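hey can u check if this looks right to u? its 151 residues, i copy pasted from the old doc so theres a chance i mangled smth
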Amino acid sequence: MEEGRARGSLTLKDFEKKVEVDCKKRKVEVIDGEAVEEDRDGRKLLRIRITAEADGVRRDYTITYGRYGEGNAAEGRAYARADAPGGREAREADAERFSALIKALTGKEPNVHHLKDGRIKIGCGGGHLDGFMSYTELADTIKKWLEETRR
């Protein structure tokens, strides 16, 4: 399986896994996904879009990667949604489901930051991007984006 992961031979469609995030077991089922490149204000961005069901809640998740800092590091950012199911704690519940999805797909938990304005930012690094490249639906676009944005 490890060799298959390295070659981008896993598929997102019908992917299922149970993971533990914040001491809670969560079930993740991926329905579909894609990676697309976008230009915004002269910057090349990579958007990874995944439709998944986590803990019985189906939603479209998007992680946007860009190059940041002096080292030109690939950094992915996403924000938990307040309109997601979960009652008053909707944003927190959405962040937990989003984290479970990322961990299930990449094997690594993302960084979760609570911002002063109440938003929750979910951060992914290059290690997460390596994990996303294991999937055939994402691998070619990620590889192309990394080559085009390298300094």
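The beta strands are 16-21, 24-40, 43-54, 57-68, 73-79, 111-114, 120-124.
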